[in-house]
Amino acid sequence: MWGAGMTNGEDVEQNWEFTNGAAGSTKMMGPGGRHVFLEGVFSFHNWMRTVSYLKVFGRQMARDLKEGKQHREAFEAFTALVEGERPDVVEKWKRWVLTWESEQHMDGHASLFEMAKPSTTMQDIRLQLGKAELTQTGAGIEVERQHTSSTFISMGLDIKESQRILTIDVKALANPTLLQELDFVKRRTALLKRIRRFRKLQQTYMPECTRFLMEAQREVWNKKNRVPEAIKLFLPSELSSASRAQACEKGLDAIEEEMREAELQESLEELRQALRTRMVANYFGHRNTTSQQALTHGQGLLQQIAIQILKAKLRCRYARNAYLRLKGHGPWEKVYNMLNEEDVRGINKRAASKEEEAERQRLRELGEIVEGGIARAGVVAAGGGNTYLIMDMVQCETFGQ
Question: Which residues form a coiled coil (predicted)?
């Protein structure tokens, strides 16, 4: 890799070795005092390293010459082995690496560590549809009116997103205060007004919608005492494929299909970002928090991140289900796989293996253990294993005697 030979990577770890003691012992200090103290420690360490360069460089050069010969021999042996087994793959790797090394300091677009394909957002699709409708209107193909097909579908998707968010927020507060209840009432009132405007537009773009609803769907349509977040909108994706062509305006299902795909990509990116945020928040808490207090501020932050993850996860699943009803089964399912619970994890975690899941199930059945907590019938937490069970039995026998 370009520039790797001019970097002494061990110096970073050597710096941490010198400052770890000071960093750990100053966690309970205030931010300003800790900053000043650590700044002095780092400055002293840098001065010590500067005055010791005369002796250090000679020792490092002698060691590097010896280790460099060993690494070169190992690298050449490994390269010869791989070229003998997969010569085509080796050539492809070399071209890829050489291309990136020649361009990484120019445009930065050929990095092997970045996603090459950016995700399509809802705003991109809305802009494309708006330009297409503008062209059609100028050509006299479409009758001019205040709203268009894309704005109708966009309004429906925004309402459904607001319904999901309101449902999650209501369930997240088991005992809301008066101010929180007032906020819910205001949000429900605004949501109900948006749904009424949507129903008026639905008579224009889906005039035969009620005629093609099934009996259960028609009962939901006529029910008046439902809360706004539970009202069904009956977009084209919620109708059967047979009745969709007759109940909707021509091309309406294709517009929702494009928007659903963009919503799927956008929700996946939101989920990735929320998982990264949770990982960084947990890392920061472990590194910088040393206390036996409740840490309510940190717990509140983690709860907000958990709600963001839940919202993105539900949005992704709803978008995929709607896209499946519109698009049907096909090769796209290999790109947008079903989002399972074990898939929603950070990059520093892995899915539990079948053996680990079987062991957890066996422990739950053995001791009625609550995962992550304390046993209902005993004192062994999940993951304690048979060793703690044996120790408890020995203690009971000893004290019983």
Answer: 245-274
Residue 117 is assigned to a structural domain of this protein: no
Of residues 186 and 111, more confidently modeled: 186
Residue ending a domain, among 38, 69, 103, is 103
Q: How many Cβ atoms are within 10 Å of 302's Cβ, its own excluded?
A: 16
Amino acid at 191: L
Structure confidence by residue, pLDDT tens digits, 338-356? 998 888 887 666 655 566 6
Q: What is the pTM of this model?
A: 0.58
Q: Which residues contact 315 (CB under 8 A, 6 or more apart)?
A: 161, 164, 263, 267, 270
* Residue 184 and residue 230 in one domain: yes
- Crossing angle for the helix pair 31-51 and 10-25, nearest 10 degrees? 140
How confident is the model over 230-252, as a mean pLDDT?
84
Residue 367, domain extent: 354-400
Amino acid letter at 8? N
Residue 373 has pLDDT above 50, yes or no: no
Separation of alpha carbons 140 and 138, rounded Å: 5
> Using an 8 Å Cβ cutoff, are 390 and 397 in contact?
no
Contact 23, 38 (CB under 8 A): yes
DSSP structural state of residue 380: P
